[in-house]
Amino acid sequence: MSRFDHLFYLTSRLHARTDRFIQTRLNQHGLKGLVPSHGAILSLLYQRGPMTMAALAEAIDRDRSTVTALVEKLVRSGYVARDPDPDDRRKTRVVLTEASRPLKKPLLAISSELRRTAFRDLDPEMLHRVMGVLERLIQNLDDEHVAADERSARSTRNRKR
User: Which molecular function terms from Gene Ontology are attached (predicted)?
Assistant: First the structure.
């Protein structure tokens, strides 16, 4: 494995360790039916208020079908509900229910503990540099994805001629 391939291996391990940390804390707080992605959705709704499925998908960087499944589980658990968007009845907004209120404090505590644990012994400048590099890697891959979609669309148009 090259040094650069190792970076992707490390980011994959970091993601797995983060999920494990969050899942362990969710279980310790008695929130056994939730997974880290549920926490991400609930946290967004606590911060921003009602959101459409598309906005949630974009905010947590997941495809809509994945977000639909996650939200459906939260609906079945009684933590969120789907309401018609008052501005566009064709759209549905995801809204918090009263049952979700007691989750806010433990979710915030888990998030805070994760940051304290993961960022321990890292100075802010180092952390800022790492975040900048990771954001650039993500942007490069996003740019390539868009370019590949455009190439595919051109190829399809050319074949139809």
Answer: DNA-binding transcription factor activity
User: What's the CA gap between 75 and 156, in Å, rounded?
Assistant: 40
In this predicted structure, what is the pLDDT of residue 161?
65
Query: What is the per-residue pLDDT across 47-75, written as a single tens digit (0 to 9) for each?
Result: 999 999 999 999 999 999 999 999 999 99
What's the rounded Cα separation, in Å, for the pair 125 and 131?
10
> CA 43, 48, 49, 51 torsion: positive or negative?
negative
Q: Report the candidate in 90, 112, 107, 88 with the shortest Cα–Cα distance to residue 43.
A: 107
Q: What's at 134, amino acid-wise?
A: L
CA distance 17 to 21: 6
